[in-house]
């Protein structure tokens, strides 16, 4: 597999756009190549198969939505953090839609749910000042509320 991080990021960003626009069925390595404007076969040099591409898309969506570390200093206010998340999701609309498509992929293909990257996507909770961790019902509900209202 190729190791050019800039090219890999560009291919993943192109994959996010394809996934958001065409849905899971439209996501192919050739479609990613076309979206990225690179020669056919380039994506297959970076991703062994579609499943690996899906896993790496999930990681890239998280990278693009993660808060700026400067926003996480000092006392953290859940309302402010969720508001900032909604702002990032509005700016990064394709990323948000791609995340929803990943979740749907896991739902539509129950046999692959355990290996689906979306099935491992955590919700987040505050465990101590300045620290957030997965699987808290409170912030999970808040996340669901924010994501469902983000485009309304």
By CATH, the topology is: Tetracycline Repressor, domain 2
| Strand order, sheet with most strands | 1-2
Contiguous low-pLDDT stretches (5 residues minimum) are 113-152
Helix-strand category: mainly alpha
CATH superfamily: Tetracycline Repressor, domain 2
**Sequence of secondary-structure elements:** HHHHHHEEH
**Beta fraction:** 5-15%
In DSSP terms, counting alpha (H) and pi (I) runs of 4 or more, how many helices? Answer: 7
Principal-axis shape equals globular
Short structural summary:
Residues 28-47 bind DNA. By secondary structure, this protein is mainly alpha-helical. Helix content is 59%, strand content 6%.
Task: Outline the secondary-structure elements.
Elements: H1 5-22, H2 29-36, H3 42-46, H4 50-65, H5 78-91, H6 93-108, E1 124-128, E2 131-134, H7 137-149
Helix pairs in contact: 1-2, 1-4, 1-6, 4-6, 5-6, 5-7
